Amino acid sequence: MAINVEEMQKKEQWWWMAEQKRSKRLDYLRKAAWKKGAVGGAYLPGIKIDLSRPVLYTQAWEENSGDPTMLRKAKALAHVWDNTPIFITDHANLVGYVGDAPNTLMWHQEGLFLTNEEIYNDRTVIPDPEEDSLQVMRDICDYWSDKTALGKVMELSSPEDAVKFMSGYIAWGVPSSALTYSTKQYDWWMRGFNYIIDEIDKNIAKAEEEMNGIPSPEILGNYDKIKNWEGMKIVLEAGIRWAGRYARLARIEAENFETDPRRKEELLRIAETCERVPANPPRNLQESLQFEHFVQVMARYEAGEAAWPARPDYWHFPYYDKDVNQTKRITKEEATELVGEFMIRAYEVGIYFISFIREALQGITGTWVWTIGGVKPDGSDACNELTEVFCQAARLVRVANPTLSFRYHSMVPDSTLREVFECIRQGLGYPNIRHDPVLIANMMHWHKHPIEEARTWVNQACMSPCPTTKHGAQPFRMASATVITCKAIEYALHDGMDPVAQMQIGPQTGDARKFKTYEELYEAWYIQIKYLMDLLVRFVNLARIKDPEFYGRPFLSGIYERAVEQGTDVCNPKGERGNCWTTFFGWIENGDSLAAVKKLVFDEKKYTMEQLIEAMDKNWEGREEMRLDFVKAPKWGNDDDYVDQVHVRAMRDVAKHSMEMKDPTGNPWPPLPEMVSANISYSSKVGALPNGRRLGDPLYDGGLSPGTGLDKKGPTAVLRSASKINHITDGRAFLLNQRLSPVQLQGEKGYQLWRDYIKTWFDLGIDHVQFNMVNNETLRSAQKDPEKYNELIVRVAGYSAHFVDISRKTQDHIIQRTIQELGC
Amino acid sequence: MKCDKCNYEGSKNEFRYLYNVQIDESISCRECPKCHSFVNCDELAEEKSRKGA
Predict the structure, then answer these.
(1) B44 contacts A697? CB cut-off 8 A
(2) Which of A517, A674, A729, A743 has the greatest CB tally within 10 Å of its CB?
(3) 3-state class percentages of chain B: helix first, strand second, coil last, to nearest 5
């Protein structure tokens, strides 16, 4: 191993370099954090579920059985926050944990019956003493067996839809806000919970006055509204009390136990911070970061929030600027350390995910994609000193989660771009780069967000931009509108039958052996894809409209101005513009498969449809020459119009249908092709395809990325293919993975090459690109000696993960990606 | 086919197909039925030799 930082830099030993460069405190906090992402679908030894929340929640839920959902849930959460054990880890300056111990995952027992069935049998996560815990869990599971939000959605949906959805072959995710992504309205909650409580009190007083006046139909809704407001108020007050418990604990430690004067001072500052926020607006950076952390942690006590939409450099900059530049209360180094700790605190947040969710999110606990850069509502550059500090802190703490997403535009300062590049060069796999003007236009096109609001956007999950405004912020988006789109090819070839599930899932579109033209095949495919999209969207629409009744979000409602103003649960779509999208897994396989059949069956007539379907049914077994012919047919990512135009047509047709599908706000469902690590977890659920793939082979890894290793004509050809899609009107966003050579991108010349590439990408109007910059030698060494590469990070798809935490198959697949040489 | 690790020998069908090493090449990963190790298989060469035989 190299011995000094310069040597480490030369040898690209970034993980050891970060260890040397970060402060002792940051080093301690980073190493003390528990790794809670599942490895190969299983949680690591020592990770346990928190039983305090399920027990306390269930007690209060039972005691308040006469209340409507919002009020009942608020009382349950308040009971949890008033009684769950709390702790402060050594050396921490920020507090608040999802769980009653540092090694715990949160279990939302009221959400998904599937999780309850699975968790009881997952012996790795049951806390000691096991027998006692199992008894507690049995009681909880029994109580909730017929009461979970998902169970209620399933009971209400059409049995046929439910069976197909639950088959696990066509969709990923769960239709309930028990497992959801919510974009927070910063300019509302940062006013402080006391301000919001005052607003609620005023609304209740006004509603009561109306109710005591002349009777009319208009005031009848006030009865429900008052209950909703009471629920919001209860939970916000409980949130303040919960923070107050941390303040008290910090003060007790400082005044009675701490002997180190410096730590004593820190503990007293923690106490002061938690007495100030979330009750009141923050006054400095520590309070500002602590406030956001409390809000995110509280939201996870309420629901299984699986994404973390945030724009930290924008919202926390005024406090950074005041502390570092104006009052000089803290130094830049101290601010960087605080930002590093803020990232570590997010890294250690963990929720128990059901197996099919964690298999597609290998190595992480949710998609914590934090957005930085971009523009202000007036269109001027929003990059600031804190944007760069976040990049610097990211390189020091090197966590796989959260990751950063950079909103690139033509005014980005060179110093900021260099910091972004340095993160990528140092192998973090992030920030990903997003085309700010294109995505702003995209939001205006699909959901009619006014430009000033569109400019506030954050990633709502991995990829989809969402405004953070009163009418633009979307409180509820579920991954279950995630379509395994390449199933449409299988169904078009098998008359709607799923050859892997052995179920008739798609509509009957005819015996493909008898198709005489490519158009017949295409039409069958289009019917199948529309059917899948409709089925999933029906589910999510139903789940959303019933969510206030089946689940309830009193806390989230309280931190949304719209919900407080209206007296509704935030998931009630009234007053929201909507920001839905259907995630497309396995999208590029569609165009590549259609083009291969077009060429080899209908244009060149080298094979018949009968031969093709027989080969599919045999999983290409004994037909290797034929398979290789189909693999060698034109493929996306090589600037070849033959195949690219097949893709463009398919994309445009689904975009047309997306405009027709409406969400509960009456707005459309644009498609968003991406993959997380589902290219591996669905590899055993998608059968053989005409692109040359066998059942078992990984699917392609992106949403717009060429097939792994099939992009043969260099990086510019990839970009040219990608630019044939209209990134404003053809969909919501498109994930493009690229691998670059760390050797080629060394030094100043490397930066210039990458910057030129980004300019080309920007000029072509592509909305997204992300990079892996780790060489194969390092990755193969990590496979051989994983214990030496614990901190090696790679970009998987919409997120990053530690390389050693992802499956062998995923590792192999990342190694297979083409390393592009820039400037060639 | 033969497993490099345990020397188990059997027909290709006995070695369960896992995934390919590279989609545009004929090398695949299969699983040894005895010791469950990964075994590389050249699908094209194997097919040709079977047809030749």
Answers:
(1) no
(2) A674
(3) 25, 30, 45
